[in-house]
Amino acid sequence: MRTYWSFALCNSPVVTGRRGATLAVGLIALAVLSAFLLSSAWMHEPGPGPRNKPITLRQGLEPNQRLTAFVDPNNKSKALLMFSELTGREPLPAQKGAAQWLDEFSDGRLTRWHLLKRASKADSGIEYHRDGQLSAGELLNQLTELFRSEGLQPAAVGSKYFKLIPLPASTTRT
């Protein structure tokens, strides 16, 4: 009789032998692949200089679409939420666990299979309606100027994230 090796993870009576070994090797390969992808492709640092293009509005949001929002210069977390909603990007460093990263990598399959619950989003304070005080483009410019007055510049990181990087000392406004 042939015996196959197995890991402690797969020692249940249902998953033993060849099936358990295959499952364990598959899980290890998935973990190594996801660690590689997370460390190399998604987390590169934006370099300083003119290569950093300004972040534009998210797809489906026109620059002249009217909205109402109050930009409080003292509330930076609310400004980050507004900027995130307007651009469709998430701020880095993202406070996600391994399960959320894996769900994002698998295009939301873990959430669709009800293995994870989707995190609720905080209210950014932006209300979209036809008679709004500002346009989406104007609000994006106000938020960018607010960050610049603090000596920070939003820079794109990949296609899903943005990061606030310090401005050179010569361009900081007071």
Structure keywords:
174 residues, alpha+beta, three-stranded antiparallel sheet, three-stranded mixed sheet, 5 helices, 6 strands
Q: What best-fitting shape do the alpha-carbon axes yield? A: elongated
Percent helix, as a range, is: 25-40%
Number of contiguous helices = 5
Question: Separation of termini?
Answer: 79 Å
Radius of gyration over all CA atoms, rounded:
22 Å
DSSP strand tally: 6
Any low-confidence stretches, pLDDT <50, length ≥5? 6-10, 40-50
Mean pLDDT: 80
Topology:
Elements: H1 17-40, E1 66-68, H2 76-87, E2 90-91, H3 98-105, H4 109-112, E3 127-128, E4 134-135, H5 136-149, E5 152-157, E6 161-166
Parallel strand pairs: 2-6
Antiparallel strand pairs: 1-3, 1-4, 5-6
